[in-house]
Amino acid sequence: MRVNGDSMIGDGIYNGDTLVVVEQPEVTSSDIAVVAVNGEEATLKRVKCEEEMCILNPSNPSMQPQLVPANKIHILGKIIQSGRIFE
Prior knowledge:
Distance between the termini: 16 Å
Largest sheet: 6 strands, antiparallel
Number of strands: 6
Number of helices: 0
Strand content: over 45%
Order of helices and strands: EEEEEE
């Protein structure tokens, strides 16, 4: 998977980086997850769900966490490796 955006720069994940993702339907709040919201394009965030709501936390200080109903998110997997390819 290739990153398009800067929401996780605090974790050293930059626009254009290549990621290795393990497909799994659940993650812990310390994992960086690939998440689809409302069936749309995937995003990278740390996810913390409590009851009916989930908080999607970016690691970019210029961005705010998103509060999303749990039934609107689909966790696609967990990032296990990030790197850059210089072409």
